Amino acid sequence: xxxxxxxxxxxxxxxxxxxxxxxxxxxxxxxxxxxxxxxxxxxxxxxxxxxxxxxxxxxxxxxxxxxxxxxxxxxxxxxxxxxxxxxxxxxxxxxxxxxxxxxxxxxxxxxxxxxxxxxxxxxxxxxxxxxxxxxxxxxxxxxxxxxxxxx
Length: 151
Prior knowledge:
Layout: H1 6-22, E1 31-34, E2 46-56, E3 69-82, H2 86-104, H3 107-114, E4 118-132, E5 137-150
Parallel strand pairs: 1-2
Antiparallel strand pairs: 2-3, 3-5, 4-5
């Protein structure tokens, strides 16, 4: 399968989230990591952006022609930590996941991805981690960003 700028797309997603963390304060206090990241209380809250895969588009075209598009899936792990309770860490997690989804659905983010050939974006969350530590509580969730890219 020809190169679809997979690395550039992941880097752009990181740039978009880092800008929201640094410039406009939407993700104030959130650290953005390129690649999987091991949860630890000092690093929280954070979003880790890493790859999940590339596949051909499953959509057919009128007239029976094969699509010349690829679907790029990118995982974003959102992890928070609370000393108080699971309820508090879950509340913080939902706030973080909502903020990340809002940023990725924004016109500016979609325009930046479109410049890299993205023609369709779909964001979907899934809670994946609830873990009690000796002191404190982690909550985490993954967001899968599916991007259809014109090749």
